[in-house]
Specification:
Blueprint: E1 2-10, H1 16-23, E2 28-36, E3 40-48, H2 51-63, E4 79-86, E5 91-98, H3 106-114, E6 119-125, E7 128-135, H4 140-151, E8 155-162, H5 165-168, H6 178-189, H7 201-208, H8 212-235
Antiparallel strand pairs: 1-7, 1-8, 2-3, 2-6, 3-5, 4-5, 6-7
Length: about 240
């Protein structure tokens, strides 16, 4: 399986749910289940926050131009309904959407470019709508291009993570360049990350026959990449429990 993670950052006034979340810093929405066919989409979302925030989120889902993730800039004429499954300390919402020929959404773009059997996880906070898409093939670049084109009128897309073919087939570099991976492996092997250090950057550079500045640059880039990837993995983990539970 392969994975792509990206964030859609909505401009003010372009998405009712994003506008509500931007007004309520404590509010969060994440998907519990999301499924799509060529003609429909249904999902269950878990919202947390203050009572005021949850009431506003429910209204945005029910009355806003939400249409279960439709990305077209005008009313697409789709049929949608939203039901409250739980309105205790948190809010659990079920949404169902029947598409029209003009409708577009991330899951339906994924069906077109990544094929069937795609898994989705979403998280929303403020104006940021983060998607984690797990798939088993297809054209990821065409998928991301199509998503960017579909939301260009209302939002910017930032790609957070893409696992390429080498990673999916067992590459151990973790997405690092070969030079960065070699520098990191040598640093670990020779105790650069021990406390106290067993070797310093100058000695390690000599061992690798590199200028010290080149070695430290590669290590910094490798460390930054792995740190960002670790945070993205934690934020998008499927096993995370609902807030407050």
């Amino acid at each position: 399986m392969r994975e792509v993670m990206f964030t859609v950052d909505y401009e003010p006034g372009c998405n009712a749910v994003a506008d509500v979340l931007a007004e309520h810093d404590d509010a969060r929405v994440r998907s519990l289940s999301l499924h799509a066919t060529e003609s429909s989409l249904w999902r269950v979302d878990y919202a947390s926050g203050s009572a005021e925030a949850l009431a506003a989120v429910e209204t945005a889902f029910r009355e806003g131009d939400y249409y279960a993730d439709c990305l077209v800039p005008e009313n697409c004429g789709a049929t949608q309904r939203t039901e409250v499954l739980d309105d205790g300390e948190a809010l659990v919402l079920y949404s169902y959407w029947e598409r029209t020929p003009t409708c577009a959404s991330v899951p339906h773009i994924a069906l077109e470019h990544l094929g069937e059997g795609v898994l989705f996880e979403t998280r929303r906070a403020g104006r940021e709508y983060t998607w984690r898409v797990v798939h088993d093939g297809g054209d990821v670049h065409a998928f991301l291009d199509a998503v960017g084109a579909a939301v260009a009128h209302a939002a910017a897309v930032e790609v957070r993570r893409v696992t390429d073919t080498a990673e999916a087939t067992g590459d151990r570099t973790g997405g690092l360049s070969p030079e960065q991976a070699a520098a990191l492996e040598a640093a670990v092997e020779h105790g650069y990350y021990e406390t106290p250090r067993e070797t310093d950057a100058g000695d390690l550079a000599d061992l690798l026959d590199l200028p010290r500045s080149t070695l430290t640059h590669r290590l910094r880039r490798a460390e930054a990449h792995l740190a960002k990837r670790r945070v993205a993995d934690a934020a998008g983990a499927f096993t995370e429990r609902p807030p407050g539970r």
